[in-house]
């Protein structure tokens, strides 16, 4: 397309819209592409929107969108006079010469549509400002309207199975050549990767546990393991400031007791060497931490888009689901709110084609049962999480429930922890065992440290 073309010229725009409609009328070859790439509201004037809808309706009924049939259809809807009669439909039809280069006309129509949507968003924000609406509400409305604007033309994702099977066989062949069974982002835990084949693109993963089970520590271990394998990682920490988070990472990487790092006590020369070596290792990791408190899901989406572009992010961690702020100021209850957030996070994972691992709390119902092993029904605030998630994992440590009320844990102890995969949309479920080294906040495969 000519980059110097004035897309804001009303004459160019109207001619382009007529060309698009004429091609949709006359070219069965590209008719479907136009009808899937554009919507009626992408056209700037009502007659063109009505003609587009008529073409679409006729197409859905397996009828050729001829001038006569379009006119009859609009007459039945009492819209023929509004579009300018059969004469105007004929004028639009006369714009067809060839369907070559139809993408250029579609792009002109689509880009102008984006501009009009932006104008409407700006006008709505201006209206709310003039009405003295709360600034937080105005900000959320503005953010929602901007993010709702479709910025890329919808492509046809339908594909013949004979083409898809070629991609599948190639993927199997590539896996065989690499000698690895991991085709996603590796977790770094052998038994877990054997079940999941790594975290898959577009997957929404829930990691849930009761407080003090080590959710954040396990998520940080997963993040470090991914980054050590040259993957880009973003970690949204809604609960903990980044300094505390990095201190945990440093403890895990350098194998220095976390309490020593917090208090700066008993730091011998050899310990300092481990700290500096650990810090150098961390500097090489492509991990981005965002510790903005009270983020809403739209802000997470906006930030993730930018981070994926700027830092080549391959996987996202969010700590944790119940701390994500409401998108609407007047949601009827928290359960519906969390359900909406959960659905949106799944949508973001699909849109950005990266796995999102989101931590979640469990309800206190676990504590009331004799058997403390968590169930999917224990997920706090929303049963919708069960439906949206591709993988649901729980952390369960028997020792957590066996300690006496005032007993202090021996930090040097290694605790056997169960990672329970209760839901796996594309594979097996099961339980894997890992060791938790509490003094370092580090999880290891049992084979490495029994």
Automatic annotation (TrEMBL):
Homology family: Belongs to the helicase family. DnaB subfamily.
General function of this protein? The main replicative DNA helicase, it participates in initiation and elongation during chromosome replication. Travels ahead of the DNA replisome, separating dsDNA into templates for DNA synthesis. A processive ATP-dependent 5'-3' DNA helicase it has DNA-dependent ATPase activity.
EC assignment: 5.6.2.3
Query: In which organism is this protein found?
Result: Spiroplasma tabanidicola
Classify the source by domain of life.
Bacteria
User: By its UniProt entry, which SUPFAM superfamilies does this protein fall under?
Assistant: N-terminal domain of DnaB helicase, P-loop containing nucleoside triphosphate hydrolases
Enumerate the spans annotated as SF4 helicase domain: 178-450
An example GO biological process term is: DNA replication, synthesis of primer
Xref: PROSITE patterns: SF4_HELICASE (PS51199)
Query: What is the protein name stated in its UniProt record?
Result: Replicative DNA helicase
| GO terms for MF | 5'-3' DNA helicase activity; ATP binding; DNA binding; hydrolase activity
Q: Which gene encodes it?
A: dnaC
What GO terms fall under cellular component here? cytosol; primosome complex
